[in-house]
Amino acid sequence: MKLHLVVPLLIVVALLSAACVPVTRPLDAARDAGAMRSVILTAFGDSAGTFGETQPFLQALQDKVDRTGESAFCEGVYEGELSGQPVVVVTTGTGADNAGPCMQELLSWYGPRIKEVIWSGIGGVTPAVGGIVDDTGQRRSGATPVMIGDVCISALTWNWDLHFSSVSDWRAA
Predict the structure, then answer these.
(1) With contact defined as beta carbons under 8 Å apart, do 103 and 73 qualify?
(2) Which numeric CATH code is attached to 18-123?
(3) Mean pLDDT of 30-50
(4) Where are the domains positioned within the chain?
(5) pTM assigned to the model
C-alpha cells in the first residue's frame, strides 16, 4: 500500500477513535465508594436549596458534596447523608427528555451501589390547592397544603411533558 494513502487513513481512524469516547466518565471515587445509596430524583430546584422540589432535601443533607460539575446531563448532583443514610439528591430538569439521560448517567456512575430510586416532586399535582408558590417562587398567601396521600382527580388531563401541545388539543377540529 502506498504511504500517501496510509497516512490519511491513520489520521481518519485516530479522529474517529477520539470522537467515540463516552460523553460521561465514571464518577471520581466517592467518599465511601462501597456504600449503597438511595437516589432521590427531583425535577427542579437550585443548588443553594432555596426553592423547588430539591429544597427540603438539600437543606437536610449532611456532609454535602456537590458533583454537579461532573455531570453532563443532570442539573444538580449532591452526595451526602439524610438521617444517617447515604443518598444522592439529584435535580434532573423537567420532563422525560431530561430525566431519562440523567438517570442513565447515574446508573453508569453508581450502578449496583444504588439501593433504591425515589422519584419525588411533580407528578401532575401541585403541593397546594391552586398552587402553593407564586410566580417568584414564594409561598402564595392563603395556600392550603395538599396532604400526603391526597388524590387529584381531573376531568381533563393530557401528557404535559413540555412537548408541542396546547390546551385546545382536546377539542374536535
Answers:
(1) no
(2) 3.40.50.1580
(3) 79
(4) 18-123, 125-167
(5) 0.60
